[in-house]
Amino acid sequence: MVPIAPLDARVLLGTILKGTTARYYVQAPIGEGGQGWVFRASYDDAEGFPVVIKVLRPDSATRDALDRFRREADILKRLSQSNPSPFIVRFYDHGEANFPLALSTHDHVLLPFTVMEYVHGESLHEVIDRQRGFGLALRRTRRILKEIRAALEIVHAQGLIHRDLKPSNILISNEAGREVAKVTDFGLVKVIDLRATATQSLAGVSLSYAPPEQYEPGNPRVGPATDVFSYGAIVFELLTGSPAYPATSANPFEALRRIGTGNRMRLAQRTSTLPLELQSRADIVQRLDAYLDRMLAPEPEQRPQSITAVWEQIDAMLREAEGVGPVDISAVTAVAGTMPGHGTPTDPSGSYRSPSQPPPPVYRVSPSQPPPPQPALPARAMGTPPIGAPGISQPIPGHRPHVPLSPPVPSMSGRYGPRDPADLRAWSFRVLSHGNPGALVRDVTFSDDLREVLTLGNAGLVQWSPSGWSSVALPIGLAPNELRAMTRLAGAAHACVGEGGLVAFLHGGALWDVRRYPDPDVVFHGVAADPAGQVVFAVGARASRGHAIIVEALSSGWRRTFEVPDLGPLRGVAFLDDRIAFACGDGGALVRVDDTGLTRIAWERSGHLRAIVASPSRGGGASVFAVGTGGHALSVQLGHDDRTDLEKVGTTQDLLDVALAADGAAWTCSANARVLRRDVTHAWRRVPVDLPVQTNLVRIAPRLDRLLTVGEDASVIEGTLG
After folding, report:
1. 59 a catalytic residue
2. Domains and CATH numbers, the chain
3. Catalytic residue among 44, 67, 164, 443
4. Cα→Cα distances 46→17, 51, 114, 671, Å
């Protein structure tokens, strides 16, 4: 019997649910749908591995809903066991438990729950919605479609049809700095040749993405071509920013009529919203439209029957538009500082660059053969906005520099008294801005006075100040999830780096200089500028091979590139002075770069290093510290061989950032809201933090008597001395 009283989701918070293989600690709500609640939980321990728990609502526990819920668990289990895919949300466990019906009663009801992979990211629907009616960048569109195709190939190979493929059922995850599409929601999956006897209600599918056979009694014609139709609708929406068959609340059946007649908007009618590479290629747009006609045909027999064959056709056309082929870096002649489709490459002075100018030299590094020294750098300031450079600088029309998005917090005072910063008990902490469960912050910069914070994440660039949050507009063609890291430059400017060799400069909060390293296979995970603002180092990996790469950029173009085939991706980089920089990354990668080239630095472990800081010390020395997973922290003593010391750390949590205060003291922050300070014994001591948060702290900015740290969920936390 289905209970009349609805379940109050709050009673689940803090409870422990027992599955078939483990226990799960319910921690926070993520979302709510018509048939269930979704919670963030941890595996087998209050601070264990994060998972998602999906619970069926009792007021939706009809026989059909129970069947669908259990079917999804069975399908996910089958897909996870047979051929696990990074592009399908993983199934971990399931169970049934007695849940109280409300806070004020002792009545319980037996309801099923499913435990699944926790995806750091957002839905594809949210990604498209943020484009404001414009298509995604072509490179990004092609990658997302490729990963959806890979998921569908596995589903179809198991004799299954998804039947509910749509942007809201595709999650865009951030994994190790890379965007990954994951297909989810298998509640409507059909097993091929298993005939149903009931008519599928319209409420069970999404009108804009479901072909006519979805509504036939028994669904006898549902097959791979059903998912091909939905895939075609997603192709159209990724390219244009709008659905092929819009379904409005005023007339939801208009979408059904258009689907049944094949009457849709054409790509050629939406030229101005297409990716830049397609806007001038009417021939490719015409071929894409013709192939979409086949994919979106009303009759399933008229559509392609293989998702693999569909992808091969779509990929070939998108690659042709993008001009993508096998990349030979030695053959690249462009050093373009321009967005695709924005004219001839120029430099910030406004003069045109010759297309025949050679590319930056590439050094494939081995320990026995460092690259040759380079000539002195020209005296140019990276912080100077490139005003008047056509094709590079892009002011954002109508950009408002500050629009508060949240209530103000109390004003902050200045100095806090003559207490010793090393007295950890003298520090107190408070939350200035609470986090958002849907946020995923990747990087943060701080103003010198700590009154402004700029975050980079799945919402793009968003600025916090005591009066609230405000968004920073991105230029058309630059997607939020392309961004991976940023650093402050002179004059309040910023350098942002990311996928596809992206190196973009933001001046004055509204003027963009967007560049692409001439090799789209490069992904940058970290960036730093030298003290004078002349040089920017972007570090990351070659995406196709996963090995380390460092690119040196000047205001006028690219200078040097270092590739290290046997080192993993680099994640952090810091300048010691205007000539020496250090970088760290996966597998214990640690290197030094100066005028003589790149030198590896060996240390006794191989844990992943996530952040590094370097600064001249008083008395002519230097302070270099790197931190990483498992509580690793090491110092580097500069000399002929740059010796390292692994230091004692008061936590085993992953250390995510490291920074120096004005007194030279090193501070670090970690997963699960830990803050630590390095003392005179070279041990990293945990600071007592009594906060109602358990977020991962991604960046920290210490001063003598005050610090700010920002969480992965965009929470802003202040520490004060005294």
Report:
1. no
2. 9-117 (1.10.510.10), 121-322 (1.10.510.10), 415-464+483-721 (2.130.10.10)
3. 164
4. 12, 12, 18, 13
